[in-house]
Amino acid sequence: MSNIIQAIYNVYKCPDYNTKTLYTSKNRANSMGDALEYFIKDSFSGSYGLDEESAMKAHSETFAYLGNQNNPPDAILKDGDAIEVKKIESPNSALALNSSYPKSKVYRDSTMLTTACKNCDGGQWKEKDIIYAVGVVKNTNIKHLCFVYGEDYAADKAIYERIQTQIKNGILEIPDIEFAETNELGRVNRVDPLGITYLRLRGMWHIENPFRVFKYLYEFDTTQAFNFLAVIGLEKYRAFPQKDKDKIENEEGLHIQHKMLKNPNNPAVMKDVVVITFAR
After folding, report:
1. Within 13 Å, how many C-alpha atoms sit on residue 152's CB side?
2. pLDDT, tens digit, 9 for 90 and up, residues 152-173
3. 59: how many CB neighbours lie within 10 A of its CB?
4. Domain tally, the chain
């Protein structure tokens, strides 16, 4: 069973962070966004350098679900965590989440999930931890990469849903409108006298990228071509197999530190986390 610790080790051992070198010649990715997703999937399945057929087999053995832009999350590990991949072009850019607010966890009862996603892993799960894999990609080079769990990055879903509910309730107070519930914020039907115009209400959520959010934990070395950062809650880290942790803890180039993180729901409360970094 794959996990974030194995993925970190694979990223550290990866021979090249140029997506053109890794994928273009193998016809495995058509864009930089696709290439980053392939890189992340390969990081968890240990399938760098494989041809498309071999990589597909490795992914099938690693993941219980693979989604796409319209069907989040991007992947779910077998008996493991969900993964959401985000590409940005600058370490100062925010993440565009569009109609989906930031996730601290993935919940099976979410209307945003497909039936296939809900039924993966036997369909008995209620919630899964989610890893945000955020990469800064310039030209074809992955310059910065961060793995962070949603619960250490985003607030609980109630925080975001409260805002959505207040917006919907405010719209309902407008007299003589026909409001319809959708997976977006909602829809106002029959706006005009003929009843042929409708207004879609769509949220456009953004969140500051983890390179800026966690600047107080670690600042990237701008003199290096590639920087990596992972933030994992101490309890979560301790639960991973010792043999996996031994592999990364025995690598001299990987820096593992215990630090304190601001709780996304209450910054006055600090949380013990493990911060894993390297640059080259």
Report:
1. 27
2. 999 999 999 999 889 888 988 8
3. 18
4. 1
